[in-house]
Design brief:
The protein is an alpha/beta fold. It is built from 9 helices and 21 strands. The longest helix has 18 residues. The radius of gyration is 21 Å and the shape is globular.
């Protein structure tokens, strides 16, 4: 690539980078170049397990998730690409009374925003998810029947195809080496394939986003954290619902359309850092916890394990918008496991901000400079719930 010029340069060729490129071109933004240091979706997008839910734990995340599902539900028609969008429901499994109490508040918030979540009692939970029978006694579940899953590859390639059709120039195997700034204004980038003059950069580099920010001379409070997954042999279909539990450690499982079970359970010993290798103890840890929750799955054989990277912020909310210290340097990262399920709609909002200069209200909670006077250190916390739950009116537990 000889020296080039572009109105906008997107760094990162995952779902966020491809989505913002697409949304900018749909709004006649001028020339757009996407730079991906490896292959399209290589950072985490094609290592995702495709969970997408409106059933978030804060109001700001829920509002974005609602809009995302409206968008993704019709993206097949808009893009002419089947993204395997599947509404099977989503359940947060609850095993202690304090979890039930916390989810009453979350359920009330959902219903106030129009998300029809339900707080189920033990028998309704087991009736909905019979794979939990004979497992650790469950106190209930926060459940939404409209939540869904998608397959990561089709959604990434749908955006890749659309961005290409609209005239985006996408360069794979192109690593950014320098970001040029003059008088607090972005002026260009230098890459392994040449240099590009530009006045606008969008940092959509996922787990590498903090490295890109440092090239521009600023620090953003994100850190990469490995998350592993495994898949089993297929069996007869027994459940549509995606299940998550947060204690004793964050874990989840669901059955795919092909009959496999995908599952994972995190380790409290996991350290921050870029690491896409799977660990020997992961399938043992996950199988042990899963046997406690759903022992009926005990005979399944594990066929494959893999790892991806979360891009974590201190409050586990994304960074979206222009950094105040450098004009033309926009953040679209820090997804904390929600990139595949929120980036497409958040990119629509950010594209509006870039072109008009007006920040949509839905993006204001995700201001990339919000940690200036607050804690900037990313920590692994023992209680997943506590970092999210807001004070809202309670709703009664449903009768069995």
């Amino acid at each position: 690539m000889a020296k080039m010029a572009s109105d906008i340069v997107i760094i990162g060729g995952g779902i966020a980078g491809l989505a913002i490129a697409t949304e900018l071109k749909l709004r006649k933004a001028g020339s757009v170049i996407v730079l991906e240091k490896d292959y399209i979706g290589s950072g985490n997008s094609t290592r995702s397990v495709g969970r997408t839910r409106t059933m978030q734990l804060t109001e700001s995340l829920t509002k974005i998730a609602i809009k995302y599902q409206e968008k993704i539900n019709k993206i097949g028609d808009d893009f002419g690409f089947n993204v395997l969008f599947r509404r099977g429901g989503y359940a947060l499994l609850l095993y202690d009374d304090d979890e039930v109490a916390l989810m009453r508040k979350v359920c009330a918030m959902h219903n106030r925003l129009g998300v029809k979540s339900e707080l189920l009692g033990p028998e309704d939970t087991l009736r909905l998810m019979p794979v939990l029978r004979e497992g650790e006694p469950v106190k209930g579940a926060l459940f939404n029947s409209k939540d869904a899953s998608i397959h990561h590859d089709p959604i990434v390639w749908a955006y890749h195809q659309k961005a290409t059709e609209l005239g985006c120039s996408i360069h794979q195997g192109c690593e950014v080496k320098k970001v040029f700034v003059k008088n607090a204004q972005i002026t260009g980038v230098d890459t392994t394939q040449g240099s590009i003059d530009t006045r606008i950069i969008v940092n959509a580099a996922g787990p590498s986003s903090s490295d890109i920010a440092r090239l521009a001379g600023i620090t953003i409070p994100t850190a990469p954290l490995r998350r592993e997954a495994m898949v089993t042999m297929p069996i007869k279909h027994v459940t549509d619902c995606v299940c998550t539990f947060y204690r004793p450690t964050e874990g989840w499982f669901n059955q795919t359309m092909r009959g496999e079970f995908i599952a994972g359970a995190v380790s409290a010993e996991e350290k921050f850092g870029y690491n896409r290798a799977t660990s020997f103890d992961f399938p043992i840890r996950t199988s042990t916890i899963l046997m406690r929750k759903a022992p009926i799955l005990g005979d399944l054989k594990i066929t494959r394990c893999w790892a991806g990277m979360y891009d974590i912020t201190p409050d586990h909310l994304p960074l979206i918008g222009q950094s105040k210290d450098i004009k033309g340097f926009y953040q679209l990262n820090g997804w904390s496991a929600r990139g595949l399920s929120m980036a497409p709609y958040a990119s629509e909002l950010l594209a509006h901000e870039i072109i008009t200069g007006d920040k949509p209200d839905l993006l204001k909670p995700f201001n990339p400079d919000r940690f200036e006077r607050k804690k900037r250190v990313v920590e692994i916390e023992e209680d997943y719930y506590a970092r999210y739950v807001e004070d809202d009116e309670e709703v009664p537990l449903m009768s069995n």
